[in-house]
Every structure is written in C-alpha cells, then in structure tokens.
Amino acid sequence: MFTLIFVCLCLLCCNLHAETECIPKTAEFKMKGDYLLGGLFGVHPVSATLHQNIPEAIICSSQEFSLSNYRRFQMMRFSIEEINNSTSLLPNVTLGYEIFDHCSDTKNFPGIFSLISVDGSVQPWKESVNFSKVIAVVGTGTSTATMTVAPLFMMDLVPMISYGASSSVFSRKQNFPSFLRTLHPNKDVIEIILRFLEKFKWTWVAFLYIDDDYGRDGLDLFVKKIKDTEICLAFSHGLEENTDYPKLIKQMEALRINVIIVFTTKKTAEKLIMSAIQQNVTNKVWIVVDAWSLHKELPKKPGIRNIGTVLGIGEPKITIRGFDDFIYSFKAQNQFENPEHDPLCNQMCNCSSVRVEDIITADPSFNFPVYSAVYAVAHALHAVLQCGAGSCNKSIKVYPHMVLEELIKSKFTLLNQTIHFDDNGDPKFGPYAIVFWNESGDIEEIGSYIFHPEQNFDINESKIHWHGDKKPESFCSKECPDGFMKKQEGVHKCCFNCTICPKGTYLNTTDPYNCIECKDTEWSAEGSTTCNIRQLEYVRFSDPTAIVIMTGTVILLAFIVAISVLFALNYNTPVVRSAGGPMCFLILGCLSLCSISVFFFFGEPSVGFCVLRYFPFLLFYTVCVACLFARSFQIICIFKISPKFPNISRIWTKCNLHWIFISAAFFLQAILLITRFSLDPPKQFTDKFYFDRIILGCELNKFVDDSLIPFILIFVLIFLSFGFSYAGKDLPKNYNEAKTITFCMLLLILIWVTFATFKTVVHVKFIDVSHAVATLSSIYSLLLVYFLPRCYIILFKSEKNTEQYFQDLIQSYTRSYSQ
C-alpha cells in the first residue's frame, strides 16, 4: 500500500517539477554540511481549503505568512549553527540542513521527495540500502500534515522528530516505527484539562475542537478520560471553515455551559474568540490548549475581558541564549539568491520585510521542541560517529536507521532538562505551564504541571482574577447535600435529583447514586453519611428494677420458709390437714424452686440463661397446679362424688391416685421440656425495632408447634383446677377452696394475658422485666391466695383450728345437702 502511494506521488511530483515555474530559493532554506537534516515548517500555511481542477503544487510564498512558524524555522537554523560552533558536541563535524515550507497538509510533496531522494531521483522499486539524503527530519508542525507524509519516511526508518504533531496515533510503533516527538501527546494535555476541571469542580463543560486528526483525537481522549468521573460532556462540536459561530454560541448558552474547552489551532481559535466578543458572551471560563495559549494578539483584543476568564496550557518560558543575537546577525546580512540548482516552490520566503523585533517577540510556542529535536539528532549522530575528545570517526557510513537506534537510547541534558524518550517515542521531559490571560493583556504563568519523574499539578489561585470577581460555576444539577443520593435524569450523570437516604442507610462518597444499607449491628438516621454502632440493651443485675425484683424474690423465699416452719409446727391441726397436709410442703418447695427462674431474666442473655428462664418455672409450677387440681378433685370426691359413687372415693383414697397424678404431671412435663430444650433450646435474639439500639432477649424457636406443648399442659391443669374448684363452691367453709383456687387461677390468667399483651405492643428491654414480674407474680399469687388465709387462722383464729369446729361445719353441710 505504501509503495503504491509512493509511486503515484512520485509521478505527480515529476509532473509538477516539469510544468511548474517557480521563483529561486533563498540561502536560509539550505546549508551544506557533512550530514544533512531535513526540516518541514509551515511558514506560509494554507488558511483555507483549495479547490483545484488539476493536480498542481501550491506556491507556498503566495499564502499568508505565519510569524510564529517562521520563528520556529529560524530556531532550527540557530540550533544547527550552535551545534556547529560547539567543540564538545560533534567536534570537527558540520551539520547541514535542507528546509522546506510545508504549507499544505496534502499538496506539498515536492519537498518531501527531495528529502528522500538521492541525486534528484526517487526509485522506490530499486533495491538499495537507503534512498534518503538526510539522516533525520525535524517536523512537521501539525498532526494532519504528519499523518500525510510520515509513511514516506517510515519505509526507510528515517527518523522523523515532530515538534507539533500531538495526535496519539503516532505513539503506535507498529505504524510509525521511526517517529519521535519533542512535545507531549494529546493524552498529557487532556490529563491537565481534567485536573483543571476536578480542581475547580466544573462538571458541565463544552468541548470545541478543530475537525481534523488533531482535534478528533483530543475529543476521543477526553471522552474516555471523563468516563468514570463526575464530569459530563454537555456539548461538543467540530470547528470548520464554514462553522456558524453565532449559532454555536447560542446552543451553549441554552445549555447553561460556563466552561468551554477549546482544543483547536490558532487560526480557528481566533475566529471563535472574535465571534464570542461580537456575540457579547460573558462570564465564561475558556480553557485553551498549547496550540494557541501563548497567542500574542488575542489577549489584547478590545472586549476580550468581557468573554470571561481565559486559562491555558502552554510551554513554560525558556530562554534560549544566543537566539536573539542570531536573528539580529541574520537580518543584518545581505540575503541573496542561490541559483546552484533548479528551484523548488516551497523554498521561498519573501521575508525581507519582517522586522527583527517581530521575530523575537513572536509566539514562542514549540520553539524548545524544535531546539531539543535538533539537539537530539546531534547527540544521536555523536554516538553513531563514536565521537570522543575533539574528533569523530567520519569513516563510519551513517544511515538513518543507525541514527534512529541512538535516538531511542539518547539521554542528555539541555537547558537544565534531561532529554530522553519512552518506548513510544514520546518525550519523558518538559513540564507545562499553566497560564492566565490577565487584565493588562499579558500571558501570566500561574502554575505548572510536571510529568516526570512524578506528576505534580500546582496552581496559584490567588493570581487568577475571575471575571465577575468570583469563580464561575458550571453544573447541570447542583451538588446534593450530604446524605442525599443522586437520581439521574436523562443521559447525563451530571443531571439528577437529590433524594435523602432513609433510616438504616447511608451515602458513601464513592457511590453517590445508591444509599447503602447499614449492617445489622449498625444504625443511621435519615440523611446519614456513616453508620453508627447500635447500643446493646438488656437488663443488667445492677439495674434498679432488677434489684427491686430480686429483692422481692428473696422476700418470697423468706415467706416460703416462714410458712413452711409454721405449717410444720402445726402439722396435726385441722387447718394444715384440710390444706393438703404433706402436699402443702410439696407446693411450697416447688414455689421456691420456681423462683430460681426470676434471677435469669437479668444479665446478658445466653443459651443457658434462656433455658433457666423457662425450665424451672414451667416444671415446678406444673407440680403446684397439679397439686391444686388433685386437692380440688379430692375434696369434690369426698363431699359430692362419694355419696353417689362410693367406690370412686375409696379407690382414689386407697390407691393414692392424687400422688400418682401429681407424679405423672411432673414426669410428663419434665420429658416435654427436656426433649424440647434439647432439640431446639431457646436462644438469644435481637429485637431491632428501635433503629439506634439492639434489645437482647430470649426466644423460643418454632413456638407455634412443638414449643407450645409444655405451656399447653400447664394451662390445661390451670383450667381443670379452676373447673373443679368452682364445682365445690358450696362445700363447708373450712373445706371450701373454690373461692381460693378460683381466684388464684383467675389471677394467673390475668397476669399472663397482661404480659402477653404488653409484649406485643412494647419493644424495649423491660419486656424481660415484665416477664420476670409475671413469673414472680404467679408465685406470689399462689403463695398468698392459698396459704396466707390459713396462716391467718393458725396465728390469729386458733378457735377455728379445732376438730370440733370442723365437725360442726361438716354436720351443718350434711344436713343442708340431705335436705
């Protein structure tokens, strides 16, 4: 493919060379030397697209003159003269040059063919070691021009060192193996622009670019760079010759864009800025790139202050000593024509009218890249020729690929900068200056961006005088307050609504679009940015309520001991025998064992604590209720069943069925409890009803099924006792326990219904307190209701505690029952 292009262009060149009449070249474009360097500079760049009916070369000198490009052109000449005058670099070797005015990107090939030809002929099909008469080429100044001509130099590995082509495509060594450059690629410029936007928190921006290889590459890099950031590209547009700038500006105004990135060349930027002045654009921030940030005329244009604040990226001021003297000396010499060879159209300047002061004060952009490019070639040649102290080995035949090898490896110091290249041929040297167009029309350095050895972005904000006295903002939606998540609207992530994060969630700064749930052990209020550790709550032994309940339990035990002693001393009295005799001591013993459960409602719940909350109470209270049932049935059997069914009463008494029943109830309940708690014991659970704390308690798993069985047994006994006691409500007064047991059972039911209701409506640590109170109240109710009246008779009504008194009551009941 390259060969085909090469042949076609060669034929075109021959035709052009034969038919185009040109003006002779001046001496400043060519100088003889031991080794030649090529140079490509757009001294007269074509400012508009040329429409031609036949292929013909452009007469560059007829185009508009570029003072800044002419300054770069002179910088190359100065660099070579300085090297030739050096005694340490290439001693006894003279560098020559052949420079061409590369004014067009696509119609400017005669100079290119001249550089890659030998003795005026180009024969790409002929086997030869090298066709080029130059060892390296410095240029070109734009990405599009480089894209056009670079393949011609790549075929023979002629080093091409560009001072102005920044497109990222040239970093691909498989396509451009002999290409190097001394200015930073677009990716570095885009990196600085991104730092600008992040530093000043501008998230809603426009990107205007020149519609060529350079501009489109900048746009692609910018879009990729902001992909994972908070920055949104609100508007982008490629600038061409026929761009409608008033319409473009109105579109940006409609989108409320206050920050505009202008990634374009000098000529295109001039049109944009002048249109912005005419359209009365105000209070914008213009971020400009190195291609035009050091523009000499624009900062002084009338009305430029009104368009806003101009910040840019440019080369730092580097003083190259001797350059001004070189220009003065050159302009003082008489320039003459050199008719040695046939003239070429792109080696004519017509620059005699250019003043020395104009050259010296012209835009200095890309001057150091030119200077360092020439010196890089000189140092590479110095290595190829094995130069030592005062001499070089000129017997070595030098080919461009040899210079290329040394260029890639080169590393030297120039004006306090270490010049060397990375594997892609991109520079590993040279900082950028951050510039500000101040109110006096000067370009002021306000910071820097250093790439090597470590990236460092530094800017002095105090030197920036914002238009309107404050930093403009540029956003689609105002940033959400802390604790509010962003809910995107439309295609741009910068356009959103703010929604407060609910309780139990928080907003992490790394993900502003989602509220994250807190852990189970954490809590957060509405609109939080962090979660707090939930406070663990349970009833401690030191809690005043716990102390009161435990004191009540100790008093209960004291009552049980006192009643036991009183009943033991009066064991043979009718009151004790009518209360059940030995059964009373069983009930009192079981009540004391029930009270053990109360102490385990306090302290941090564990499996052991949870088991002991239920097991003693359920087991021994079952025995108490079974005793009441047996006692109720025994009395009913004696007074009501015996007259009608005497055998039943006799069997009940003779076989001691009441003890069998009590024992059966005890063992059945014990089996149920042991089985249940062994298979699935009650365990600690966390009540998270309150968002800021966790209530620790105990729960019985699977309560609805098998956990309910031990409770069913005790409730059945309670209701049976209640039924039989109610049936004996008309028995003799001292044997009539219906009221006592009925009241006791009703009290028990009331206690546990109250507790169950309280537990369902309240979610606090005092559920355990209420459970302990319910347990203690159940014990107290049975103790006080059943035993206290009998204690009262024993202590204060001894006349009622006689056999004669009981017999009189029985006889009175018998007479009334028989009637």
UniProtKB/TrEMBL annotation:
It is found in: Cell membrane. The chain crosses the membrane at residues 546-571, 583-602, 614-639, 659-679, 708-728, 740-758, 770-788. It is a multi-pass membrane protein. GO terms for biological process: sensory perception of taste. Residues 1-18 form the signal peptide. Belongs to the G-protein coupled receptor 3 family. TAS1R subfamily. This is G-protein coupled receptors family 3 profile domain-containing protein.
